């Protein structure tokens, strides 16, 4: 589990990054701070792996704050200005995110943290150690092997993840899960459905049979599905 702290003087910016962190089961937000001074107190009391750190803040800037630390965690800068990019990377920032930060760009930044922080989800299907993810189910983090997922259905901002062992309901959008599953053997067949190719039995008309379940194929997804299966 990666412990992070969000530091930003803008309430909306803090809330946006927190909403992104909440979508990733392998990151735990320890604190949300509105100043570097407040963040310093958190760092003094707890072990923090990464800071999501704004640069321009009243009192002390994010860059000066980082330079003042004897032992600093990894840092991903967030800022509305591109002028600080060179200086940020000179002090070994993991990444530099320009506001407004999109979830896709946030994911790319987090993935740069790499295995040093034992990230619990990976897009490397050939690695047995990285062949699973953790889902937030109620108050638990549940380990789910990618190869066990049969299909996933979306219900608004919630997902129903059907595995060969159990069905899990978790708070996450299908678009965000699709990003995490990219490069794996999963295919989007409908605006609300993703399937695992390994469990396809046959396609008949506008339906696909997956592990004895009949699922509808969206008209806009049919062509890409067939192309993915090598039947263009």
| Largest sheet strand order | 2-1-3-4-5
Remind me, CATH topology of the largest domain? Answer: Rossmann fold
CATH class of the largest domain: Alpha Beta
| Number of self-contained structural domains | 2
Q: What is the alpha-carbon Rg in Å?
A: 20 Å
Percent of residues in β-strands: 25-35%
Total strands: the figure is: 15
Number of helices: 7
> What form results from the Cα inertia axes?
elongated
SSE order: EHEHEHEHEHEEEEEHEEEEEH
Distance between the termini: 42 Å
Model description:
It is a single chain. The chain is of the alpha/beta class and 232 residues long. The protein has a 5-stranded parallel β-sheet with strand order 2-1-3-4-5. A 5-stranded antiparallel β-sheet has the order 10-9-8-12-11. It has a 3-stranded antiparallel β-sheet with strand order 13-14-15, with no helix packed on it. The N and C termini lie far apart (42 Å). Mean pLDDT is 84; it is low at 115-129. The protein has helices at residues 11-21, 36-45, 62-68, 85-90, 103-111, 174-181, 219-228, and strands spanning 2-7, 27-33, 50-54, 74-79, 95-98, 132-137, 140-145, 149-155, 158-163, 167-171, 186-190, 193-196, 200-204, 207-210, 213-216. It has 7 helices and 15 strands. The protein is elongated. It folds into 2 domains: 2-117, Rossmann fold (3-Layer(aba) Sandwich), CATH 3.40.50.2300; 146-228, OB fold (Dihydrolipoamide Acetyltransferase, E2P), CATH 2.40.50.
């Amino acid at each position: 589990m990666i412990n992070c702290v969000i530091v930003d003087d803008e309430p909306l910016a803090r809330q946006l990054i927190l909403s992104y962190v909440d979508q990733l089961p392998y990151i735990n937000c320890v604190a949300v701070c509105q100043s570097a001074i407040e963040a310093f107190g958190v760092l003094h009391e707890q072990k923090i792996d990464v800071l999501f750190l704004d640069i321009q803040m009243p009192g002390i800037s994010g860059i000066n704050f980082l330079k003042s630390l004897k032992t600093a965690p990894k840092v991903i800068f967030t800022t509305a200005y591109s002028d600080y990019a060179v200086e940020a990377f000179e002090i070994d920032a993991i990444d530099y995110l320009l506001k407004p930060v999109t979830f896709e760009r946030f994911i790319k930044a987090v993935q740069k943290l790499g295995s040093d922080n034992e990230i619990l989800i990976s897009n490397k299907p050939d690695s047995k150690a990285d062949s699973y993810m953790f889902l937030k189910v109620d108050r638990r983090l549940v380990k789910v092997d990618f190869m066990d997922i049969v299909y996933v259905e979306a219900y608004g901002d919630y997902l129903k993840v059907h595995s060969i062992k159990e069905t899990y309901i978790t708070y996450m959008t299908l678009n965000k899960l699709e990003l995490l599953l990219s490069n794996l053997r999963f295919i989007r067949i409908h605006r609300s459905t993703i399937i695992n190719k390994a469990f396809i039995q046959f396609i008949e008309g506008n339906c696909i049979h997956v592990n004895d379940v009949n699922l509808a194929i969206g008209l806009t997804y049919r062509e890409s599905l067939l192309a993915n299966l090598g039947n263009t």
